[in-house]
Design a protein that fits this description.
Blueprint lengths: L15 E8 L3 H15 L3 E8 L2 H10 L4 E4 L15 H16 L4 E5 L1 H14 L3 E4 L4 H11 L16 H14 L1
Parallel strand pairs: 1-2, 1-3, 3-4, 4-5
Length: 180
């Protein structure tokens, strides 16, 4: 699925377009992540997102097409034909990152749960991930990561977030509710 943002005629030609691949099987979370990217880039760039629900589809799309950024949520990717194991999703994420990076130089952001970050961040970074974030994250974290990772030829001059994103607030609320 591709998302298209319509621009006012006076802004056409002035805006850059960023192609982002989301590796995640949860539609609602994909919608939140897309909304975060749109808000970060609002008025500065057009964001077009493609989605992959399976690890194999993520790798295939990332290797076949040009993306400015790949975002992977390893625990939310559907596995291939092998039986899942406790570290299975991280092993699959590491393999997918290595394959993508061997064929395309574009940046990869991995999003994990807070309890997974301390355990798996070194492995993901060693595999080639450019950044590891945890959900929920605020707009400044995303803006900082996107600002650092966009291709230099097309980098936004300044990305600023003035508030917490709705998705982050909602994810924190859902986490609190689940802990109750």
């Amino acid at each position: 699925m591709r998302v298209r943002i319509e621009l006012a005629p006076e802004n056409l030609g002035k805006m850059k377009t960023y192609h982002i691949l989301l590796g995640n099987c949860e539609g609602l979370l994909n919608d939140f992540i897309e909304a975060l990217f749109r808000e970060v880039c609002e008025g500065k760039a057009v964001v077009k997102c493609a989605r992959a629900a399976r690890a194999g589809d993520l790798v295939r799309q990332a290797c076949e097409r040009e993306f400015d950024l790949v975002v992977e949520v390893p625990h939310n990717l559907l596995p291939g034909f092998c039986a899942p194991t406790p570290i299975g999703f991280i092993a699959t994420a590491i393999e997918s990152i290595q394959t993508i990076k061997s064929r395309r130089p574009g940046p990869v952001i991995v999003i994990v749960a807070p309890e997974e970050r301390s355990k798996y961040e070194p492995l993901l970074l060693e595999a080639g991930a450019d950044c590891v974030l945890e959900l929920p994250f605020d707009g400044d974290q995303l803006a900082s990561a996107v600002g650092r990772l966009l291709p230099p030829r097309a980098r936004l001059e300044y990305l600023e977030s003035k508030r917490w994103f709705f998705a982050g607030v909602l994810m924190r609320g859902l986490r609190r509710l689940a802990q109750s």
